[in-house]
Amino acid sequence: MTLKIHQDHSRFKQIVRGKIKANLRRYVQKGEMIGKKGKDAISIPIPFIDIPRFKYGHKEQGGVGQGEGEVGQQLGPGAVEPGDGHQAGQGEGDHALEVDITLDELAQILGEELQLPNIERRQNERLITQRIRYTGVNTTGPESLRHFKRTFKQALKRQIATGTYDPKMPVIIPTREDRRYRSYKLQDLPETNAVIIYMMDVSGSMGDEQKEIVRIESFWLDTWLRHQYKGLESRYIIHDAVAREVDRDTFFHTRESGGTMISSAYKLCRDIILADYPKSAWNIYPFHFSDGDNWSADDTRQCIDMLRNDVLPNVNQFAYGQVESPYGSGQFIKDLREAVGDTPNVALSEIADKDAIYASIKDFLGKGR
Amino acid sequence: MPKSLTPRLAQLRDEIHGHAKEFGLDFFDTVFEMVSYDEMNMVAAYGGFPTRYPHWRWGMEYEQLAKGYEYGLSKIYELVINNDPCYAYLMESNPEVDQKLVMAHVYGHCDFFKNNFSFRHTNRRMIDEMANHATRVRRWVDKLGVEKVEDFIDRALSLENLIDQHSPHIRRNPDPKRVEDERKANEGVEGFKVGREYMRGYINPSEFLDSQRRKVEDEKQRAKRFPERPQRDVLMFLLEHAPLEPWEADILAILRDEAYYFAPQGQTKIMNEGWASYWHSTIMTRRALRDDEIIDYADHHSGTMGTRPGAINPYKLGIELWRDIEDRWNKGKFGKEWDECDDLRARHAWDKKLGAGREKIFEVRKHYNDITFIDTFLTPEFAMEQKLFVYGFNDKRNSWEILNREFRKVKAKLLQGLTNFGQPIIEVVDGNFENRGEMLLAHKHDGQDLKGDYARETLRNLQSLWRRPVNIITRYDAKGAMLRFDGQNHSEKKVEL
Predict the structure, then answer these.
(1) Does the reported pTM lie above 0.80?
(2) Residue A94 to residues A55, A83, B434, Cα–Cα distance (Å)
(3) What is the assigned CATH class of domain A192-365?
(4) Hey, is the C-beta of A57 within 8 angstroms of any chain B C-beta?
(5) DSSP symbol at B199
(6) Beta carbons of B63 and A9 less than 8 Å apart
């Protein structure tokens, strides 16, 4: 049943979408919403969706309450709820409206705002899996697939035809021949699995701020790629002079002090791809973040060799994000640009600060690969 | 779609109706309708009405209510509309004892709507009126497009609270005839009639004549000013003087109408909810409850009466105050003798066996609103018993805390919160400010500053209706300030008050 209110409700949702779009840059830069991520929806605080009026600032206002307590006692969190309807005559107060939005919808908005192209499927090696779909009906089959309705109909038809059906005593007894079973067909479905391999430099020069930037970036990259591919896996590699694979939590919270050898991470990345993600079945996205400081020119050369020979031929896109830090020399991105900058499946981005996240997402995802 | 009552509920309604009548409640015919939970949420989102003009704000309201219900956080039990006949909604899924409670509660509200003076000027056919408003707005939407109309409604709603809540009761503009008389009287400044010429200097000294002349001059100046007196009904001022398109004026008039319809409910929240609660409690516990329903009833009733430290629950404060008044007039705890008695023991044991309580509360429900109700009947004993306190924000500790339990302060704060619905008082003082057709508003500052970002956004919306620059004089941090929006830019300057 439809209610009249649904028209107003969908209008409201439309407006919310517009607000999110208009403020996307701010949301992208802020990490606050990431903490509120649910399974497939996210809760976003919307500013100024309520109608502005001349009214008092709530904090100056205070009010009258009821209950125990000494003078000077704190009321405790949540006791004073601005905008409580029960506060007689106190006006509405201010509430930042929190709206739920699905990650899919958020990705759509991101795509529209950043004008991100949809990812082109890799044509030559189309990934195919077979799926079982129950589409037909058969006269034989296991009892677990018996189609009750069809069986009943068949029996009814037979009984009427043979004149054994009695409308006053409508008992239907199916025989062996009446039974019908669901049957399946194998169908070829294009498979859309993808894996993101995050790599991050955790040497001493990467501070908390740099890591926060990586965390926010990874949220948006996840969101977008999840929107594009049904099954998305993530792997995390941290490195200083040596690399190791860790879980997501460790990834964002580890801090080491050693030097930096980027080749160690690329080597591990290569090994993971070779071991777990055959090119024919997976769309592979390595993302590497560092402050651009590598141990030696020799190591950088090694990195570039590995990229050229082992990584780039196997992945959809290799992305490198260089987060500016006061200690990093920022040399690495220049080397990369020189060596592989022209390769179509390489995306490079320099991220100066949180404001630059927005642009760098576009750098990473704008190629549509 | 709303359904009528089941036979069982109709029987219960007749029973409760009988009890309510027997206790002397006096109400319009009351129609109960059964609705499902989402219909209930819809009607609640529409402010109690089945039909409203199209606007996203109802959708937002609905979203919040629906979410609250789905998560089990909140549930609307009762909805009743001030209309003749009164309409009230019952939720299908509620158990029988809740339905009885709600019915009793509703009869309380209906009695209040019918008898309290604040509602005397409200439209008792508001259901029809709201539907008409909806049709009118829809017609404009069909003609002009949803975006254009919605955008205007958004801007106009921003000014919705700028009404004069007393105006339904008072004639503001002076009688044209009287003005005429005054003008005639002031025309020539000859002073008093003088019988003997040599007395002229004594009867009409030149200072007197000068002051008379000044008065006339002032009067003429004032007649030139526009509005003549500061006007609190800003919406009316805009309707009369802003260069609005016909459709804009039509919609603005609709919003103003509805604002005035809802105003008395804001002015009597504590009394009204308290009165309805008093009667559901009385009817249920004295008459309608069956033995096996008592636990559920008590659970539900106490849920409604629950308080939190940082807020006043109007149901709780209201019912307690009604009971206190009844008790005081039953025992004769009022008048000179009572006021002058400062022997605590005697006060405590005071009982003149007047038994006038019921009569008194019926009288009070007729002639008071929340402000006069609190002002007249809130006593120090009551405030202490109910553990009322004033709270405020402590910037140093960044938290809310209890500031005071002193009776005077509690009462003052309560009244302040109720004055003008807790909204700032704002008037149009000049519609031709600086002789440039600008609008000048004045905020009557009462110790609380306006919320700055909201004020600026509101000015922007006001300007879009007035077309010329708009200004408001207010105070920030105890200093006079004039905020201005000229259609392009916001500005602010200091002013001497």
Answers:
(1) no
(2) 10, 5, 35
(3) alpha beta
(4) yes
(5) G
(6) yes
